[in-house]
Amino acid sequence: MDVGFRARINRRRLIGGLLAAASASVLAGCAWLDPLKPPASPTPGPSSTPLAGGSPTPRPGASPTAAPIAVVAGPPSGYLAIAPRTFRAGQREMVSVSLFKDRQPTTGTVQLAIVKDGRPVAQALAQIQGRGDVPVDVPAKAAEGDYQLQFAAGSFQDQSPVRVEDGTLLFLESDKPIYKPGQTIHFRVLTLDPQLRPVPSSATVDLSDAKGLKVYKKDVQTDEYGMATLDVPLSTEPNLGVWKATARAGKRTVQLDVRVERYVLPKYEVEVSLPKDWVLASEQIAGSVSAEYSYGKP
User: What is the pLDDT of residue 67?
Assistant: First the structure.
């Protein structure tokens, strides 16, 4: 079994400490860690106390009956680690790790830490049997920004820049795209986590008219189903055109355009008449189509 690595992306790297070369695919947008061998093994301190441990957590959908990997004993002479470039606050993220001794997979303890300004925000410890995933639980209160992902396994240690962002997905929608003066716009705010599950959150919604004047603003709190509704009545003499509604939650912003127009009587009306309201898939549809001007002439 070859134990080197060649990324099929826009660059190739030879990983230090590995004795042969093999190929593997890396998803675009993943952070890559190359091994650096320090003079001495990293000494765990108070800031490196693991918060999560145990055996590697399998990926969702992985076969539970997969054959175990044959591993050799001894400290690793090389490793491979792939992590997301962006970690989501309040979510569990996986870092894929492979350990090698010469040309064979080996076992070892892997320690990970997400660090901001020299202080660990999240840590994890796992025993890797050849290869596996190390779960890292990112705190929900972790501030958005740039962090360092620190890696330690045997005599290897390294770090790579990553980002932590708010894990809440934000959506804004209205009950229809066009409104008449005097009508009420019904908005709905929806907040979901990265797994598309409802999550309570706070958001701010504001509305600007066709001339860019802000006419409405309100803070809302989504419920346990991730939803919040609000109604905005329009005046009888609004500025006609495209109105812009904006919802903000943390650093996330979404925008929705709605039109405010006066009702214009259509010049004609088209009507479709069918003998019944439903048909079978194997039946032909028969009926009549008629069109009349608004003053009654065909």
Answer: 54
Mean pLDDT of 73-80: 82
Say if residue 48 is in the same domain as residue 125: yes
**What's the rounded Cα separation, in Å, for the pair 84 and 92?**
11
Q: Residue 296: what pLDDT?
A: 75
Average of pLDDT values for 214-241?
Answer: 95
Structural domain count of the chain: 2
pTM exceeds 0.90: no
Domain limits at 135?
Answer: 30-165
CB atoms within 10 A of CB 278: 6
Quick one: 68 and 107 in the same domain? Answer: yes
Distance CA 81, CA 88 (A): 19
The pLDDT > 90 percentage for the chain reads 41
Among candidate residues 136, 165, 194, the one where a domain is terminated:
165
Residues 153 and 173 in one domain: no
What pLDDT is stored for residue 57 in this prediction?
Answer: 43
Confidence of residue 32 (pLDDT cuts 50, 70, 90): very low
Q: Give the CATH number, domain containing residue 222.
A: 2.60.40.1930
Question: Per-residue confidence at 68, pLDDT binned at 50, 70, 90?
Answer: low
The domain boundary residue, chosen from 228, 244, 260: 260
